[in-house]
Design brief:
- With about 190 residues, the chain is mainly beta.
- Helices cover about 0% and strands about 60% of the residues.
- The strands form 6 sheets. The protein has a 5-stranded mixed beta sheet, with no helix packed on it. A 4-stranded mixed beta sheet has the order 13-19-18-15, with no helix packed on it.
- The radius of gyration is 28 Å and the shape is rod-shaped.
- The N and C termini lie far apart (about 90 Å).
- The relative contact order is 0.18.
């Protein structure tokens, strides 16, 4: 019995792949022989048929995946090769946060005590479409004044009857893989 020696080429290169889209990544797998030409090929990923062409581009979910290619060379020799590809998510979510003047829609860092202000938080995460977001508004009780917060389903409006003073917004975002990011912003109330 003649034996063929197939090779599995992985693009991007490497058996460790970073998650590049929601839930996993797409890789390109190419079968080749060290000697001769491939007459037929069968790919299996995690024991499931994945293709019968020399090049396939499967989507691999987060986690470890067993890849096997079985080939028949043009001279009738057969062979098999296996590899393991691990898809990980090591990238933290990205946070964009700002205070918005509710009347003008402009991003602000200072406001008068009578201004209506709304905090804005946007979190993006390549691999996890729904990262957990925790936001805490810290309202110091400076000068004995008061801050008012009115919450609606789509926003929270903040006002102050004191000046000067400030409030801080702290945001923590965590994805399903445990990667975290934090952002802190401050709004100063001025006369």
């Amino acid at each position: 019995k003649r034996v063929a020696t197939p090779v599995i080429d992985i693009e991007p290169e490497g058996t460790e792949q970073e998650c590049s889209e929601s839930g996993g990544t797409t890789v390109q797998l190419t079968a080749s022989l060290t000697v001769g030409n491939i007459a037929s090929v069968t790919w299996m990923i995690d024991g499931v048929f994945a293709g019968d062409t020399k090049i396939i581009t499967p989507f691999l979910a987060l986690g470890q995946h067993s890849v096997q290619v079985d080939v028949v060379a043009d001279n009738g020799a057969t062979g098999s090769a296996t590899d393991t590809i691990t898809v990980t998510d090591t990238t933290a979510p990205q946070i964009e946060a700002a205070f918005i003047n509710a009347q003008t829609g402009q991003v602000i860092t200072q406001a008068s005590p009578s201004d209506r202000v709304s905090p804005s938080v946007n979190v993006t995460e390549v691999c996890d479409p729904e990262p957990v977001i925790n936001a805490v508004v810290g309202i110091p009780s400076e000068n004995g004044g008061f801050f008012f917060a009115n919450q609606t389903p789509n926003s929270t409006l903040l006002r102050s009857n004191t000046s000067p003073g400030h409030i801080e917004l702290s945001i923590l975002a965590k994805d399903a893989s445990g990667n975290t990011a934090t952002e802190n912003i401050q709004l100063e109330f001025v006369k």
